Amino acid sequence: MDFLQSLTFDALASQLLVGLSRAMILFIVSAGLSFVLGVLRVPNVAHGSLYMIGAFAAFSIAQVFGKNPAGFWIALIVAPLVVALVGLIFERVLLSHLYQREHLILILFTFATMLILNDLVKIVWGTDYRSLAPPEILKGAANVFQISVPRYSLFLLLLGPIVAVGMWLFVTKTKIGKISRAAAVDREMVGVLGINVSWVFAAAFVVGCYLAGLGGALIAPTTAVTLGMDRTVIIEAFLIVTIGGLGNIWGALIGSLIFGITQSIGLLVVPQFSVVFPYAAVVIVLLLRPRGLLKSVW
Question: Class assignment of domain 2-288?
Answer without folding.
Answer: mainly alpha
